Amino acid sequence: AQGLGSGLTFSSLFQGLSNRHVVGTWYNSIKIDKSGAYLTLDGFTIKPDLVPQILIEMQKEPVFDGRIFNQFKIDRVDEKKLSFHIETGLQATDDTDKDTTKEGDKE
């Protein structure tokens, strides 16, 4: 199995997702960076209350211990179907991760 950072493997992450699959949801995209720190899940459901259940189930899986999910979004696709986006890991976005210390403020 191909390795990721911290002793993880791609197969262990996919196995964790499989172990904690929430019936009534399906993924159309799973992205994992080479370190394993950044994970994005995109999918669909017809029951909006199932999406938070995905996070609850993932907390029970050891491979996801310590993982912080920093984005959680649900959108209505049509009358019946909802899309969801769940994201974890560190990724610089906008100015949030940039050093904003002024040159004169540094010691």
Features:
disordered C terminus, 4 strands, 4-stranded antiparallel beta sheet, 2 helices
Question: Can you give a write-up of this model?
Answer:
With 107 residues, the chain is α+β, with helices and mostly antiparallel strands. It is 19% helix and 28% strand. Strands 1-2-4-3 form a four-stranded antiparallel sheet. It is globular, with a radius of gyration of 17 Å. The protein starts with 9 loop residues before the first helix and ends in a 19-residue tail after the last strand. Mean pLDDT is 79; it is low at 90-107.
Order of helices and strands: HEEHEE
* Overall geometric form: globular
Mean pLDDT, all residues? 79
Count of helical regions: 2
- Bin the helical content: 10-25%
> What portion of the residues fall into strands of 2 or more residues?
25-35%
Offer a concise description of the structure.
The chain has 107 residues and is of the alpha+beta class. The protein has helices at residues 10-19, 50-59, and strands spanning 25-32, 39-45, 69-76, 82-88.
